[in-house]
Design a protein that fits this description.
The chain is an alpha+beta fold. 37% of the residues lie in helices and 12% in strands. The protein has a domain at 43-146.
Length: 151
């Protein structure tokens, strides 16, 4: 007796079902991993910008932080001497080519804040007051650096 060695329709449907179930489990995990990678990237780049802004401050006479008119502030840091940031750093959560948000307290200019729009695509942070407190609504998911008061 000769047996046919091909797959039956039921066997093919079972294999396709198992693959679909596995993909349904794996794909959301990749999305979470990508968001976590973007969060880490934003935190790292904000620390880099913080160091660059502090360096800018130390090299100015009189000492001052880059003005808000330099928003995005990296454009000032790219042309500074000594060079502080070689190329613009873009917010991984914002539209492509969008730099991080930057604000300096007014009128004293004693405090600054740099922030990302975060995974939600928007943030409640709107700036920083002259007493070093972030303006707007600061959520626990916001990604920012400041020399002001950490809320």
């Amino acid at each position: 007796m000769k047996f046919n060695r091909g797959f039956t329709l039921v066997e093919l449907l079972v294999v396709i079902s198992v693959i679909a179930i596995l993909l349904g489990i794996i794909i959301p995990r990749f999305k979470g991993m990508q968001e976590e990678a973007n969060r880490s990237k934003a935190k790292s780049e904000l620390k880099t910008l913080q160091v660059a802004v502090e360096s800018w401050y130390m090299h100015q006479s009189p000492q001052a932080y880059p003005p808000t008119s330099a928003t995005p502030c990296v454009s000032s840091l790219n042309s500074a001497s000594p060079l502080m940031v070689a190329s613009p750093l873009y917010d991984p959560f914002a539209a492509p080519g969008t730099e991080y948000n930057y604000a300096v307290s007014s009128p004293s200019g004693a405090y600054y804040a740099i922030w990302s729009v975060g995974p939600t695509g928007h943030t409640g942070i709107t700036g920083i007051s002259d007493n070093g407190v972030l303006s707007g609504t600061v959520a626990s998911t916001d990604i920012f650096v400041t020399n002001g008061i950490q809320q």
